[in-house]
Amino acid sequence: MAVSIRLARGGAKKRPYYRIVVTDARNTRDGRFIEKIGTYNPLLAKDDEKRVVLDAERAKHWLSVGAQPSDRVARFLDAAGVKERATRANPNKGKPGEKAVERAEEREKKAAAAAEAAAAPAPAAEAEASTEA
Q: One GO MF term, please (predicted)?
């Protein structure tokens, strides 16, 4: 049986409240669970100690028998010092897409052409001014 540690949603509409539960991975999100090991209230301030309440001892037990935490629960476990979470890095996330790159290249070409056009007539205007005098 694949066991996971994940969030089960409770609370009213637009007022979420989550239980941190140990459950069979095949069960529905808010369905049957094996054990409740904590709570998470996202409406509280980030520095409030009641925002995440976690039984670290039970979490360690379930991790030792092979339970897999979800991404969000892994963050909570890392903050509590129960399990080290590997940092995720996506170097391509900050790069612009193909269309944005094309638009930037077009802007650069237009700016270069405008700079050339502005620079070219200036010597011609000086030559005309010197011939008139």
A: structural constituent of ribosome
52-111: pLDDT as tens digits: 999 999 999 999 999 999 999 999 999 999 998 887 788 888 888 999 999 999 999 999
* Exposure string over 41-62, b if 16+ CB within 10 A, otherwise e: eeeeeeeeeeebebbeebbeeb
Fold adopted by 3-80: S16 Ribosomal Protein; Chain: A; (3.30.1320)
Report how far residue 39's alpha carbon sits from residue 70's, in angstroms, rounded to the nearest whole number. 14
Sorted by where each begins, the domain ranges of the chain are 3-80, 98-127
